[in-house]
Amino acid sequence: MSLTRRTVLGSAAALAAAAPMRRSRAQGRPVIKIGIMNDQSGVYRDITGPTSVACTKQAVQEWGDHGFDVEILVADHQNKPDLAASIAKKWYDSDGVDMIQDGGASSCALVITSIARDKNKVYLSTSTATSDLTGKACTPNMVHWVTDTYMASKSAAGALAKTGGDTWFFLTANYAFGLALQRDASKFLTEAGGKVLGANQYPFPETTDFSAALLQAQASGAKVVAFANAGLDTVNCVKQAHEFGLHKTAKIAGLVMYSTDVHAVGLESAQGLKMCETYYWDLNDRTRSFMNRIKPKITMWPNSIQAGQYSSALHYFKAIQALGPAAAKADGAATVAQMKAMPTDDDCFGSGGKIREDGRKIHPCYLFEVKSPAESTQEWDLMKVVAVTPAEEAFRPLSDHACPLLKS
């Protein structure tokens, strides 16, 4: 098996390529090239970044020798859609990349999925949350893994409304992802009999001081203050909300929040917060086994996004094996169709999963409560499961679709 990691870091002026690390491979063997594009240096670095790369490399290592070699390229798009477009076009057109993985910021992912369709390549989105990827922006060349705004909003809004959290105020990152998250959560809140009292849509990614927005939320009298953002923005919002004492008068909801965020905030400030994830290292024997295998290779324990890198790469390799490398390289849509035809099974998301016609990978969603410091037994013992939404109920039903692939 050959694994090449080419690190390509985006800068304002150019992409600087690092020297590749190679192992010898048999002459003439097919090579599958994967490009991992995410935030390696900004607000989403910890929830994607280097750990996402490590999880894909883990999948390559465990896949072993099945008749083709794998090369990995990595790029930092800095959450800039124009830079993401430039990288994607270069990878697909000049560098022979067959599949782009990750994606990060929704504005970047929406650009990547369009380019993958036009070039008939594959895009596996793991860190992007906008549900538009399997809605109006769906294509036959894309699979959306892990989470989306529909799932996160449905789980959080429904659970909180049932326990008295029926008035909300949003702090929203003002771009595609944040706006979709606020839109979806507002819909589910209203359907549950709740009401949106207001929202502060702040500039992304320029904002780091949320004090004015938090004071506005506090003045609204909302029972729930919901953060329609992710990554470092969510971490800063939770920390600053705790400093303002907002948690004493309102419930705090991180609509798209990950175990890595909880670790960054700390249990003292995050305890009691409710959040949804589709993977956690301590769910069962299989997730613990994965964690034990990858632990020596990382510093931050993988969240569900990063576990999705491992899961989606393994399933992609299975589809290539079924089609044959030459056919898979020649036709991205056919490769995605093969992925949809096969059940998913891996140590992070379990067995019996599937990819629907709209490109949505479905699996159960877990509602977690962040532990108190007294409940935690070690550094990454952060959360406990309080509810489970079955896979068939967690995501937007096909009957409520806007995906052009499903229109007759």
Question: What's the topology here?
Answer:
Elements lengths: L2 E8 L4 E3 L13 E8 L10 H15 L5 E8 L4 H13 L5 E4 L3 H14 L2 E4 L16 E3 L4 H14 L4 E7 L2 H16 L3 E8 L8 H10 L3 E5 L3 H12 L7 E4 L4 H7 L1 H4 L3 E4 L7 H10 L9 H20 L1 H6 L1 H10 L2 E3 L3 E6 L5 E2 L2 E6 L12 E7 L1 H4 L14
Parallel strand pairs: 1-4, 3-4, 3-5, 5-6, 6-7, 8-9, 8-10, 10-11
Antiparallel strand pairs: 1-2, 12-16, 13-14, 14-15, 16-17
Helix pairs in contact: 1-11, 2-3, 4-5, 7-8, 11-13
Structure write-up:
The protein is of the alpha/beta class. The chain has 2 domains: 3-147 and 283-363, Response regulator (Rossmann fold, 3-Layer(aba) Sandwich); 150-277 and 364-394, Response regulator (Rossmann fold, 3-Layer(aba) Sandwich), CATH 3.40.50. The chain is built from 14 helices and 17 strands. It has helices at residues 49-63, 81-93, 106-119, 149-162, 176-191, 211-220, 232-243, 259-265, 267-270, 285-294, 304-323, 325-330, 332-341, 391-394, and strands spanning 3-10, 15-17, 31-38, 69-76, 99-102, 122-125, 142-144, 167-173, 195-202, 224-228, 251-254, 274-277, 344-346, 350-355, 361-362, 365-370, 383-389. Strands 2-1-4-3-5-6-7 form a 7-stranded mixed sheet, sandwiched between helices. Strands 9-8-10-11 form a 4-stranded parallel sheet, sandwiched between helices. The protein has a 3-stranded antiparallel sheet with strand order 12-16-17. Strand 14 and strand 15 (361-362) form a beta hairpin. Helix 1 (49-63) runs parallel beside helix 11 (304-323). The N and C termini lie far apart (44 Å).
